[in-house]
Design goal:
Oligomer: single chain
Shape: globular
Largest sheet: 6 strands, mixed
Distance between the termini: 56 Å
Length: 358
């Protein structure tokens, strides 16, 4: 475990380098340090986790470090909370070539192959700043793969991802998060033994550049607690601040995850099937939460619940067998016969697609 973390997972030479470090400290340096080799390894481990999240093999070091070089960098002190370089969230900004950026997110020819299996095949889409853009499609259409490629947890086989005018195709997920791309996952990931407020305090503390304040608990940082409470109020969980996350309902956990993502002041919020497993009432409350975010936060939502999609979306992209089948307004997608056949063959889809129509 030490070797993989220090050297970098997913790299043969990184694992070999990590193993060499472990063996060198344990066999060669430990006797000279009076048996303190495990302590040295522990310090190296902590340093690697904090400074080199992808290990030596996945990190290009620059010295001296500047804000943005590693995940522990504090934010630019010249920026107030929620401010972003290049203008307020959701606003067009000048790209490197001097042109105006009207699309906050663009993918071009995005492809992901696993050997002979093509999970995503040349997907291009454009998400306008301030939009509510939904991606739908039958099971196996490639939606989750698209989510992973957009947010940086997977590398594309071909194509590129441009976010806010910058090519982020080869940037890791934590770099995209620092650039203003927030996300929630299909499966909840919370500290279930901690109260709701503490879960959010950890996120706000990290976003404020105080993640290494180990001698001062987050509970004693007034600004962190106040920001956490503001976010809880925004998502409707202020009354559950002291409740352990394990005691939250499924819908409330989703609300908390949105608050965690909002703690990073994202320009773009990517939601991966957020209403999966929710009751109709919980889904409606979640839709109200997304509606309350306003145009300052652009939303890209991957969703199966078509009632939620047609309630929220200003534009809809339909995937089928890894390709874009249709792209247009909600009304255009409802009326598209190819979309109807992709979902239920040639059966009539009036109940499915026209139920939500005004």
């Amino acid at each position: 475990l030490l070797a993989v973390v220090i050297g970098g997972r997913g790299s043969l030479w990184g694992a070999a380098l990590g193993a060499a470090v472990v063996v060198l400290v344990r066999e060669e340096l430990s006797p000279q340090l009076g048996g303190r080799g495990p302590l040295v390894l522990g310090l190296v481990f902590v340093a690697a986790v904090y400074l080199l999240p992808r290990g030596f093999a996945g990190t290009r070091l620059r010295w001296p470090f500047t804000p943005g070089d590693h995940p522990g960098s504090p934010p630019d002190p010249a920026l107030a909370p929620g401010d972003h370089p290049g203008g307020p969230p959701g606003s067009p900004r000048a790209a490197r070539d001097g042109s105006d950026v009207t699309a906050l997110l663009e993918t071009t020819g995005l492809t992901r192959r696993y050997g002979s299996l093509v999970a995503l095949d040349g997907v291009s889409l454009s998400v306008a700043a301030g939009a509510r853009h939904a991606v739908i499609g039958p099971n196996g259409a490639g939606k989750s793969t698209l989510f992973a490629l957009v947010t940086g947890t997977l590398r594309p086989t071909a194509g590129r991802v441009v976010f806010d005018g910058q090519d982020v195709t080869r940037r890791p997920d934590h770099a995209r998060a620092r650039a203003g791309m927030g996300k929630t996952f299909q499966h909840s990931s919370l500290f279930t033994s901690l109260p709701v407020l503490d879960n959010l305090a950890l996120a706000t503390q990290r976003a404020a550049g105080r993640g290494m304040a180990m001698l001062r608990p987050a509970g004693r940082q007034v600004a962190v607690q106040e920001q956490a409470m503001r976010l809880l109020e925004q998502v409707g969980l202020a009354g559950r601040a002291g409740t352990p996350a394990a005691a939250l309902s499924h819908g409330e956990r989703r609300q908390l995850e949105v608050a965690l993502a909002l703690a990073t002041s994202p320009r773009l919020l990517v939601l991966d099937e957020p209403t999966a497993g929710m009751s109709a009432a919980d889904s409606s409350r979640f839709a109200e939460l997304v509606e309350s975010l306003g145009s300052a936060v652009t939303v890209l939502i991957i969703e199966h619940d078509l009632d939620v999609v047609f309630r929220l979306a200003t534009r809809v992209t339909v995937l089928h067998l890894g390709r874009v089948l249709a792209d247009g307004s909600p009304d255009e997608i409802r009326a598209d016969e190819t979309v109807q056949r992709a979902y239920l063959g040639d059966a009539a889809l009036d109940d499915l697609f026209f139920e939500a129509a005004p």
